[in-house]
TrEMBL record:
Coiled coil: none
Residues making up the signal peptide according to the UniProt record: 1-23
Family the UniProt entry places it in: Belongs to the sulfatase family.
Official protein name in the record: Sulfatase-like hydrolase/transferase
Stretches assigned to the Sulfatase N-terminal domain: 29-384
Keyword Nucleus: no
Organism lineage: Bacteria, Pseudomonadati, Verrucomicrobiota, Verrucomicrobiia, Verrucomicrobiales
Region (Disordered), start-end ranges: 566-585
Organism in which the protein naturally occurs: Haloferula rosea
InterPro entries noted in UniProt: Alkaline_phosphatase_core_sf, Sulfatase, Sulfatase_N
Keywords: Hydrolase, Signal
Polar residues biased stretches: 567-581
GO molecular function: arylsulfatase activity
């Protein structure tokens, strides 16, 4: 028996014997959030595969609650981590790797994450390990890794104790406060193969320095089990699995899986499977390596529980164990993650609450849980108010068996927005055009869908025609039989298709945008500022299509062309006004418009916005813009279009609007006349709105204005 396991068994046995915890006590609980990297949900004894030797985590499960239907909202590390911290879906915060969802996380939003809220409520907050995404003064679109990033400068307002790296941005290792013991733990001379032990040592150091009369929240993000090089393996633990033959899932595919949608040939997981897991020998070689790393993590869990017992804090501590995403490891003929099958999307989730009475522990829970629920649940457990902007649900009552399950969710939402080929184009200044080309060439496998208690639905929504998949998880848990074309399941397919559309519309409300050209942090040499170019107010229009509308973008170079684009006149008289960056505190020129057409303004603005009040909620079929250059000074034109059906005036707060798309005539910058229209296909609509806003972006590289003689913006509504 491993020496670290003995005190853990004694600890949990003691806790069960004395039953120290009833309901929540008068003091706030301590919270420890443990997360691994790329660890599949079924790589644990408590999830049915004892060969992985996770005895400490299994004991935690025996004294806690194991969630059997927990899911990642997005199964790739950076956006998953941003979702876990913020309680917001990826399409809402948009912090990820590839355009257009490649924003940094702004500090104003990080104020509404669970570490920031807990610190504000008096908790001592700590972080150890892989942080994973950059927090910057303002949100901006990255073209490469954020450089010259000072972790302490940007993150010390939220963490009292820190020992870790940025990993996916140039945030080299940092630690604070000044601590000789931490310097010893992370001595550069210490072998790289002790990376998980170092993380465990820093975790224990946080507990050793914890004041007695203050609650704490410690977030530990292990670098394991991701990566499989020799320098990632702790040698004594390698020996534990040297002769183990691991079980092989029934959906592991030797060689290429010809049943996959062809669009997935564009996903890196196909080629990686061929190189790493496509034969029995390759499969066993790598699974031993992931088991080794998981075993190293398990030992740190044993150390954690033993230390909490030593401190007398175990009975007032909540421990949450999960991962940031799964990994295929040959299942479905894929390697890597992100795609929506369970090996990627299903999450391990074990929660130990030392305050719970014994009869409420040691059970399995089948409620549908999403990783977006993590932040609101942590705050609720701490008795801290959950910010309205968080989109997840607090599952603490599910944990404590006080939730009315008739009111609990009936499905979870998942999405995948990462394109590996587009990631390789991140430095390309024309990445938006590359993105559109990939979509036009049917190379996009962006996907969204929902999973309910029995079925999983997913749609590759940018493929033409769309590709849909439907799986009966009860009869086909390995997801090997796609039922999307089965007429017997047409009703289920239609229901989940509609729920996916509705869910997407719900989560993109108040989504993140980069509204200004925000400089990147100082360059690494400290001598210059890296002014990474920023996209217009919203990125390319495709990610923000109103569901149910097939949207067309058209343009024209002359007045005759504009007359063909211009919407027909509609019933009602609309009111419009203009707001410009030259006069940011006032609305200018309120005026009545001709029926359905307008406004027309003399224009010399650098940036600005135009708003139309439709008077009542109307189905909008098209929005159109045109402008004429003045004295040859025509600049490029980008208009971001938003709509709201709010019954009260939402003002100029675009956070209260839904982004519909952009009109971009950049490539017509020198045209004397430019017109463009964003419109629904025949018989469709962009959505139902009362308020429409056009936000004009900066129009030249130098930030100069359009200098147009005049400009017209128009809207067509259903009669």
């Amino acid at each position: 028996m491993n020496i670290l396991l003995v005190p853990f068994l004694a600890v949990l046995g003691l806790s069960a014997h004395v039953q120290l915890a009833q309901a929540a006590g008068p003091s706030q609980p301590n919270i420890v959030f443990l997360m691994t990297d790329d660890q599949r949900w079924d790589c644990f004894g408590c999830y049915g595969r004892p060969e992985f030797r996770t005895a400490n985590i299994d004991r935690l499960a025996d004294q806690g609650v194991v969630f059997d239907k927990a899911y990642h909202t997005v199964a790739i590390c950076m956006p998953s981590r941003a979702t876990i911290f913020s309680g917001r879906y990826f399409s809402n915060h948009r912090v990820g790797f590839t355009y257009p969802n490649n924003l940094t996380f702004p500090k104003k939003d990080f104020e509404d994450t669970y570490p920031a809220k807990l610190k504000g409520a008096g908790y001592r907050t700590g972080f150890v390990g892989k942080f994973g995404f950059p927090v910057t003064d303002e949100a901006y679109h990255t073209r490469d890794q954020v450089r010259g990033y000072d972790l302490e400068e940007h993150l010390s307002p939220y963490f009292d104790f820190f020992a870790g790296n940025g990993v996916h941005f140039r945030g080299d290792f940092a630690s604070w406060p000044e601590d000789d013991k931490l310097k010893e733990i992370f001595d550069p001379k210490r072998p790289k193969n002790e990376r998980t032990l170092k993380t465990g040592d820093a975790m224990i150091r946080f507990l050793e320095t914890q004041p007695k009369d203050q609650p704490f929240c410690l977030s530990v993000s292990f670098y394991a089990v991701k990566n499989d090089s020799d320098h990632d393996m702790y040698p004594p633990h390698v020996k534990e699995f040297a002769d183990v033959d691991f079980s092989v899932p029934e959906n592991w595919v030797e060689g290429k899986n010809t049943k996959l949608p062809e669009v997935l040939d564009n996903w890196r997981g196909v080629g990686l499977h061929k190189a790493r897991t496509s034969t029995p020998a390759l499969y066993q070689r790598l699974v031993r390596r992931f088991a080794t790393q998981g075993y190293s993590v398990d030992q740190q869990v044993g150390r954690l529980v033993a230390k909490l017992e030593e401190m007398g804090q175990l009975d007032n501590t909540v421990i949450i164990y999960t991962s940031d995403n799964g990994r295929f490891h040959g299942s479905h003929g894929l390697y890597d993650k992100a795609i929506h099958y369970d090996e990627s999307m299903k999450a391990p989730l074990v929660v130990f609450d030392g305050r719970l009475a014994r009869e409420k522990r040691g059970r399995r829970e089948t409620a549908l849980i999403s990783m977006v629920d993590t932040a609101p649940t942590i705050l609720s457990l701490a008795g801290v108010e959950v910010p309205e902007r968080m989109q997840g649900r607090d599952y603490s009552k599910v944990l404590h068996q006080t939730e009315d399950m008739a009111d609990w969710r009936t499905e979870v939402y998942n999405e995948s927005l990462f394109l590996s080929k587009l990631h390789g184009q991140r430095k390309n200044p024309k990445v938006a055009e590359v993105n559109e080309r990939f979509i036009a060439e049917n190379q996009s496998y962006r996907c969204r869908g929902v999973t309910d208690a029995r079925y999983k639905y997913l749609i590759y929504y940018e493929h033409d025609p769309v590709i849909e998949e439907l799986y009966d998880l009860e009869k086909d848990p390995s997801e090997m039989n796609n039922l999307a074309d089965n007429p017997e399941h047409a009703e289920v397919l239609g229901k989940l298709r509609a729920r996916t559309k509705a869910f997407y519309q719900e989560i993109i409300i108040d989504h993140a945008v980069a509204t200004t050209e925000t400089p990147a942090p100082p360059a690494a040499n400290g001598s210059k500022r890296d002014r990474t170019p920023v996209a217009a107010n919203v990125p390319g229009w495709k990610p923000f299509l109103m569901e149910g509308a097939s949207v067309l973008v058209e343009s024209a170079d002359d007045a005759d062309g504009f007359r063909k684009l211009r919407p027909t006149q509609s019933d009602g008289r609309f009111t419009a006004n203009q707001k410009t960056a030259n006069d940011p505190l006032e609305s200018l020129g309120d005026g009545r418009l001709a029926t359905g057409i307008g406004p027309v303004f003399p224009n010399g603005v650098r940036t600005g916005a135009y708003r139309i009040d439709l008077g009542s909620a109307k189905a909008v079929q098209a929005v159109t813009s045109w402008s004429h250059h003045y004295k040859g000074a025509r600049g490029t034109q980008k208009l971001a279009i938003y709509g709201s059906n709010a019954t009260t005036d939402p003002g100029w707060d675009l956070g209260k609007f839904t982004a519909l798309g952009t009109i971009d005539t950049t490539d017509r910058a020198k045209s004397e006349f430019t017109a463009a229209s964003l419109r629904a296909a025949e018989g469709g609509s962009l959505g139902t709105f009362r308020w429409i806003v056009w936000a004009v972006s900066p129009v030249t590289a130098a930030g100069g204005g359009e200098n147009t003689a005049f400009q017209e913006l128009s809207v067509e509504t259903a009669r």
